[in-house]
Amino acid sequence: MNAQESIEYGTNVVGGIKPGVEGEHLGLPVLPNVRAAVEKLKPDASAIYVPGNGTVAAMEEAIENEVPLIIAVAEHIPIHDILRIHQMLRTQSKTRLVGANCPGIINTWGRCRLGFQPLPFFQEGKVGIVAKSGTLSYEAVASTTRAGLGQTYGISMGGDVLAGTNFVEGFQILAEDEKTEGIIMIGEIGGSAEIKAAEWIKEYNRKTANPKPFMAVIGGIQAPPGRIMGHAGAWAAPGEANASKKIQILEDAGVTVVDHPEKLGEGMKKLLANRSKTTNGQSTVTSVGGGASQQRRGYHTIRQRPRSSAATTQLRSQQRRTLYIKQSQAFDMLKERGIPTVDEPTVKDEKFVSISIDREARQPCVIASPSTDPEFAFQQSRKFPFAYGSTEATSADFLESVAEHLKISGTAKDGLKQLVTQLVDIFMSKEAFVVQTKIALDSQGGIHVQGAKFGFDDAAFRSSGRQAEVHALRDIKAEVREDVEAEKEGMIYVKLQGEGSIGTIVNGAGLAMNTVDALVARGGSPANFMDTGGKATSETIKAGFRIVSSDPRVKVIFVNIFGGLTLGDMIANGILLAFKDLNLKVPVVVRIRGTREAEGQKLIQESGLKLDAFDSFEEAAARAIALAKGEETM
């Protein structure tokens, strides 16, 4: 169906690949491998739709046969497999990767779709969009279409730890594109892509006469420190900026940041009108994003928005990607490798040494900081990337650089070498995504570990069946019950602290993060983050209601769905099913946008149940907050 839709849209699909099979589908040739396809069809791009455990082999085959562009849409690809792919890409100059875990790329004027973006929302226009989140990018598309602006390109970075194509690479295309007049970015917590984007935008604005305006939405302001928020890449490594810090840096670069994608269309329309007036020799300041905003430097918008508890990710945060073992278990791994540990910290002057992933370099790295004080983490942490699968991290020159940054000298360097060698071995052999330690020097100049937190990649186990021994260490009894129940249903649930009067059910991690952020910004108190996944079904929605309604704090449930692959009427039927089977007592506010939204809204409105259906997020959020506070009733 996807191929048929893309062909009807105008995409020049020349054929397909099915391993070991040769034939025909939709009147086009099906070939047994990429080599045969390259020889016979001469494709410019390969869109890979196979599941996560087969995606890597398909990418390797495409790279080996020098296909110019690879679009990988699958999620749950093991991190270490992707690290290996990026090591391959570093050795060649023929192939570019987009993804993985992304909806792909669409060019509206060229009538070309490589991926699964929902075509009804797109129209030829003047705004380019580069996004980490699929569902938030659909919101941005719908908003710019409603505003009469349309789009030129939709470019997806994807939500994984390692993106094949990043914001800056997307911006470079859009800045040069004659049809693109304004640029929108959709970012989130995790990595430094937004920081690098801000640096590029600042330089672009400095060098360009009448530069194209930029707008942004950044998700994850309310993300609990250390939790992975749906997307595999939605977590911040030690010393990385959190969402609030990213917003500040983007605003300082001249980007207009709004708190919900519904504001992007009208906001960009005003920015473009102002740019046109500036071109004609006039200067105008226009309000963007609501009356509470203040402007400086023309469109640079300052907003008072809720901030997370710290400006940067704290070193003591615990990243969580299903399996994050106990410190005692991490200590056992270290002791087996001859690394001294102490259960109770004996030295206050700690240093930080971690093996994780440098998303910008697309390589593993050592992260080092001479201090573990969270206040200085962002400023003092430094990344030292190294080639995947190499011995570079234990070379003399590499370790000398790390030691110098840590202010370690003399015989302690030998202890540092032993530590880094063993941490790299754990990272590689156990397929970790982060292996972090707090270290201290003893009176004899030796190094011992006073704290350790090790996180391992669940995709290696779930998608590929590897690392069963490591994942056997998981203690489900110690985890939050709702988290475990949601996982069984293929969803992600994170309980939030506080009053928690509004339960949330949302499809897509980016949209779920933004929903929580936006509710807090409007005075609400969400009980949870819930990502039902981009392919939610009626049964999924019913399970979501069961889990969310089990929290006694919840006074109203807010369902926020933007249907791309998800159908609005199917979601509505799931909500009605939940009411019937679960005997729900709390009121429910539903916002359904996207595919078959009118049909879904009609089903809700005509149900006769304690349900309210809305098209507008602002109206739906206001209603949910008022119900939670007892200011309104059904």
UniProtKB/TrEMBL annotation:
Kindly provide the name given to this protein in its UniProt entry.
CoA-binding domain-containing protein
Domain CoA-binding per the UniProt entry, residue ranges: 2-76
Q: Locations of Polar residues compositional bias?
A: 276-287, 307-317
* Basic residues composition bias: residue spans: 297-306
Which Pfam families does the entry link to?
CoA_binding, Ligase_CoA
Could you state a single Gene Ontology molecular function term? nucleotide binding
Show where the ATP-citrate synthase/succinyl-CoA ligase C-terminal domain sits. 131-255, 505-624
Does the record's keyword annotation contain GTP-binding?
no
Q: Which GO terms describe its biological process?
A: tricarboxylic acid cycle
By its UniProt entry, which InterPro entries does this protein fall under? CoA-bd, NAD(P)-bd_dom_sf, Succ-CoA_synthase_bsu_CS, SUCC_ACL_C, Succinyl-CoA_synth-like
Q: Name one GO cellular component term.
A: succinate-CoA ligase complex (ADP-forming)
* Keyword annotations from UniProtKB, A to Z: Nucleotide-binding
Annotated region Disordered: where? 276-317
